[in-house]
């Protein structure tokens, strides 16, 4: 197929017009009619499908209503042995995707691995402390304001202040992976987006903003294949579009909010509205991005998929972790996520075995409160987009519910070895609830 590739805006307008006149057309016929109207265009059926779905213009036929599972790819460049030689990545099936399994026995309470975040998106109280310069803008730990090691953002001036502080030069150096595009002094176009994120407390959007900043800046630095490595982590994350997530949860998509977010997001990181902001951004982003990556970041349908990807993979206390994101849910988890390095690296996570784990077993965390009844657990997991949980515990409790006449209030559990109270406290350290 050859011809002109239309912009996202032009294609959306054309598809809206076609669907208004022909609402019952399927994807293939919509493509045919579109290319009849725009003979110089080159548009794939896949791109049309993504836009129709993201715009809410596509009504699925009976043959298209099958369950959509999160996509999952293996990141071959991820060095799992760097974290632990006792675990490995394994691909299960289409519904479950990939996960982590043990290569040898692991003892109860054993530290399996520690991990620093790929992207930091902390809880809102920590976020506010960072914005006020009270916690390090990189590692999130509290800064000693009277310490000679503390460094104020070098770009901050009296005219264009940036309140971010770093606890030492190492954190300042590492912050260059994302901060320049989120700095009020270097990229003032980011201010409306960051203010909106804080107002609505949308952690997935904060993480996606930080992630996009990291990819854009890795492209500028081009150090030791850093861009390819970072992009490999992104592509390896489980992904499910926002439309599919809301459909699975039985909720009405909030497309107006999504579009507002997209405008703020692109205005901050791609196409600022004012010439002054455009000039500022151009000073930070001098090298063009590969078109494939650019489309994957800044097309509207890709943006929605990015939000879904963040929602599926976030650890709510700290952000996004390359290896932690491989962990699947279990209603009887065998590991927990802890933030133990309170003084030196608050965002670092430590994975600890809750029970003895034999070689060949899958490592599991819980995405929901394990003390809930089977119906409540399954409902919450459906809202995540994972379908109905059919683990051994859920199947057994479902039988008990049926035997009790449909009442599952008494069918609750606490997970392994009656550790429900501890597990409940650690829930927000599993995957982020957004």
UniProtKB/TrEMBL annotation:
Protein name as catalogued: Histone-lysine N-methyltransferase SET5
Residue span, SET domain: 85-368
Catalytic activity field: L-lysyl-[histone] + S-adenosyl-L-methionine = N(6)-methyl-L-lysyl-[histone] + S-adenosyl-L-homocysteine + H(+)
InterPro entries: SET_dom, SET_dom_sf
Species per Swiss-Prot/TrEMBL record: Athelia psychrophila
Region annotation (Disordered) ranges: 402-422
SUPFAM superfamilies (UniProt xref): SET domain
Source taxon at top rank: Eukaryota
GO terms under biological process: methylation; negative regulation of gene expression, epigenetic
An MF annotation (GO) of this entry: histone H4K20 methyltransferase activity
Gene3D superfamilies: 1.10.220.160, 6.10.140.2220, SET domain
Keyword annotations of the record: Methyltransferase, S-adenosyl-L-methionine, Transferase
Pfam families, per database record: SET
PROSITE patterns xref list: SET
């Amino acid at each position: 197929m050859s011809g002109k590739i239309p912009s996202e805006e032009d294609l959306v307008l054309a598809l809206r017009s076609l669907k208004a006149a022909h609402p019952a057309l399927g994807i293939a016929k919509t493509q045919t009619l579109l290319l009849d109207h725009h003979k110089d265009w080159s548009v794939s059926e896949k791109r049309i499908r993504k836009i129709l779905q993201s715009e809410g213009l596509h009504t699925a036929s009976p043959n298209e209503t099958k369950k959509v599972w999160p996509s999952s790819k293996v990141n071959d460049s991820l060095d799992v042995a760097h974290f632990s030689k006792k675990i490995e990545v394994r691909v299960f099936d289409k519904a479950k995707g990939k996960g982590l399994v043990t290569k040898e026995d692991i003892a109860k309470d054993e530290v399996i691995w520690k991990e620093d975040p790929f992207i930091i998106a902390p809880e809102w109280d920590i976020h506010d402390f960072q914005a006020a310069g009270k916690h390090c803008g990189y590692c999130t730990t509290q800064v000693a304001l009277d310490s000679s090691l503390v460094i104020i953002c070098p770009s901050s001036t009296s005219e264009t202040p940036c309140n971010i502080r770093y606890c030492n030069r190492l954190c300042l150096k590492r912050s260059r992976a994302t901060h320049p595009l989120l700095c009020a002094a270097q990229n003032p176009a980011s201010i409306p987006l960051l203010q909106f994120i804080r107002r609505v407390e949308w952690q997935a959007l904060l993480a996606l903003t930080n992630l996009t900043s990291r990819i854009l800046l890795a492209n500028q630095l081009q150090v030791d294949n850093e861009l390819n490595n970072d992009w490999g982590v992104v592509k390896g994350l489980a992904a499910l579009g926002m439309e599919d997530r809301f459909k699975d949860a039985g909720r009405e998509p909030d497309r107006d909010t999504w579009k507002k977010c997209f405008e703020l997001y692109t205005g901050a990181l791609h196409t600022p509205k004012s010439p002054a902001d455009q000039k500022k951004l151009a000073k930070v982003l001098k090298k063009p991005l590969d078109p494939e990556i650019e489309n994957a970041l800044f097309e509207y349908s890709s943006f929605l998929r990015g939000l879904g990807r963040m929602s599926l993979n976030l650890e709510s206390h700290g952000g996004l972790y390359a290896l932690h994101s491989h962990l699947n849910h279990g209603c009887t988890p065998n590991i927990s996520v802890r933030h133990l390095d309170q003084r030196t690296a608050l965002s670092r996570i430590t994975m600890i075995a809750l029970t003895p784990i034999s070689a060949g077993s899958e490592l599991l965390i819980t995405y929901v409160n394990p003390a809930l009844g089977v119906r409540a657990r399954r409902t919450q997991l459906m809202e995540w987009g994972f379908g109905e949980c059919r683990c051994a515990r859920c199947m057994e409790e479902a039988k008990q519910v049926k035997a009790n006449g449909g009442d599952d209030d008494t069918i609750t559990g606490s997970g392994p070895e009656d550790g429900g109270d501890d597990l409940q406290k650690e829930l927000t350290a599993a995957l982020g609830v957004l």
